[in-house]
Amino acid sequence: MKKTVFFTTKKERYSLYLLAFGAAVFNAVLSLFSNYLTDIGLTAATVSVILLITRVWDFVNDPLAGSIIEKAKFKSGKYIPWLRFSTIFLPIFGIIMFAVPASLPVWVKIILTTFLFILYEAVFNFLDIPIFGIRLVTTNQVQERTDLASFIGLYSLLGLLIGSVLFPQVRTALGWGLTALIFGAFGLITMIWYPYIAKERFNIKSNDPSVKDMIRAVVKNKQLMIFYASLLICMSTNYLQVIGLFVSRYVFGNEQFMSLLLIAILVPSFLAAIFIPTLTKFMDKFTLFRASLLGFAITGVISYFIGYSNLTLVLVFSAIRGVFVGISALLAYSFTPDMVEWEHYTSGERSEAVSFSFQTFTAKAITALLSVTMMAILSVLGFVSGEGVTQTLPVVTGIWAMFTWIPSVGTMISLIGFQFYKIRDKKVQVMIRHNHGEIDRETAEAELVKLGGY
């Protein structure tokens, strides 16, 4: 087994992982913003509209953030200045989102929550794009980039696990506002260190492209389009990510069951994810990614037919699904650096920040589609807003379907699209060496021919 050679220092890596951990602990609260909106008296249909409006804004916000990062010139680096800004202001704005009083008139609550959500998402881009993009400038090794992405995901998963387990206990005791304050303060304390420790080593000088040029470069990147179109289909039907509180409240009749359910899913996810850096030394990460998606799809269908009356079996199969969730979720956003290098090699164009802005846009589009369609489906089924209410059987059945077999359908459809994604690790490493001027074109072509061409 080949040992990974790290360009990044241990201090850099662990401060990066601490950032990911703290952000995930806080995001355990933010992922339940739609639940918060229904708890303060907004209907499911209204919440669906609010989420739709905020995501429409992202059509402008994401590419705009990417172009700003791409064109800005700072002495301290391409990504580090934005991380210094976002790690401070993101938790602050996130806390404010949960400070809207339930006693306000409905129209005021709608305007305030929509505005605050838009503001939060605007700042979020200047954390999310750099946190993924910085791998391109801190190291030029494919395996190190994969390891960094894996451990970022691993620590994020650990943070999500801890945050999700603690959340129901803290929220029921202190309410939404104080819970957001506590989790947000923790996120702030853990996130602020990395931007002052990280070092950008491999910035490639490029021309000053126009916004049109950057967008054109991304659209022309066929492998990026294929991958993220398939991922959008796969993940935008994976309601497992957002429906946990509803499942606990209305299927199993106990909000605090959410802690047990998430432990069953996330602990195996975390344990499986630990082995990703080792597994990717023996096999291409895309092969591992596809295998995990197939396993997730199969176990989702089995879970549906088992039903929700036997809690032991529910938890057992949730744990099995968690293994596949952990691998696929952690690998899902590790491919963009490969796409940047591939496009640079094949076309001579390199738009790092815009490519990562497309990644963040896809991720937020997935979250939006999950939240919007979930609330729309529940609204059609007759979901009743408010804390402590009882839902009808169609609502309960619909929640269970969204937790089990519906994600499997989307995943199987996406695997068709993923068949057309052709980028593989060994070829990318050759392209990186050429892109950074280590080998000439003729040598790179010869090595790629040995690997099957491109």
Q: SS-based structural class?
A: mainly alpha
How far is the N terminus from the C terminus?
Answer: 26 Å
Question: What is the number of strand segments?
Answer: 0
Strand content: under 5%
List the helices and strands in order: HHHHHHHHHHHHHHHHHHH
Low-pLDDT windows of residues: none
Q: Which oligomeric form is depicted?
A: single chain
- Relative helix content: over 70%
For the residues shown, what is the average pLDDT? 87
User: How would a textbook summarize the main sheet?
Assistant: none
Task: Calculate Rg over CA atoms.
Answer: 22 Å
Helical run tally: 19
**Mass-distribution shape:** globular
Defining traits:
454 residues, mainly alpha, 19 helices, globular
Describe the structure.
It is a single chain. This protein is an all-alpha fold. It is 76% helix and 0% strand. Helix 6 crosses helix 13. The chain is globular.
Give a quick summary of the entry.
By secondary structure, the protein is an all-alpha fold.
Task: Compile the SSE list and pairings.
Layout: H1 10-30, H2 33-39, H3 44-71, H4 80-97, H5 106-138, H6 142-191, H7 211-220, H8 222-235, H9 244-251, H10 257-274, H11 276-282, H12 285-306, H13 311-332, H14 336-347, H15 352-381, H16 393-403, H17 405-418, H18 425-435, H19 441-450
